[in-house]
Fold this protein.
Amino acid sequence: MTFSIAGYCAETGQIGCALATSSIAAGGRVAFAHWGVGVVLTQARTDPRLGPQGLALLRSGHNAEETVASLVASSPDRDWRQLAVLDKDGNGAFHTGQRVSAPADAITAKHCVAAGNWVKDETVVAAMVSGFGQDPFLPLAERLLRAIEDAVAAGGELDPLRSAALGVHGRNGFAMVDLRIDRSEEPVADLREAWKEWEPIMPGYIERALSPATAPATEDLEGHSKN
């Protein structure tokens, strides 16, 4: 019972994804990504093992369609799975098994792939794609977040949402954005608030990883004691 989107920014090369669902801890079970490789989303009756397997296929040179085909062929429980894959060039592919809870849909568009199951109707997935494509000059994280906000506005999931996640990976080799909301009555709204807090201090934390001697202290970033 999840709706999600994976996206690529042609200007920066960043990749990322955003999702929301009625179960908790989905950010750690659904989304798998690495810069220069791609994104794998595994949902419905989620099998987190498919995420690393999909990234390994992408890393070995498979494109999105080939990766989905290989994952489906190797999974005996494929009928229970919904998969979405975005490769390093921004090409998407998906699979929705016959036993995935309906309404279920998936769409590929320019530099993105979106999927959803147990959603109000097919307009929910279409709203994600539309929201992502509205302003391609916005930061990738903002585009992904707007996509799932539009999905909520279109009706979202049939059960009340409880968790949401937003992740973006850049060329530094680690997640620039890894925000997760769990056990919330308004997880997408809370994710928006978390992004508003993280966005202005994100460059400082990236600098702390790359150049700790010249990076700002924690109290300068967040106004609290150094940790």
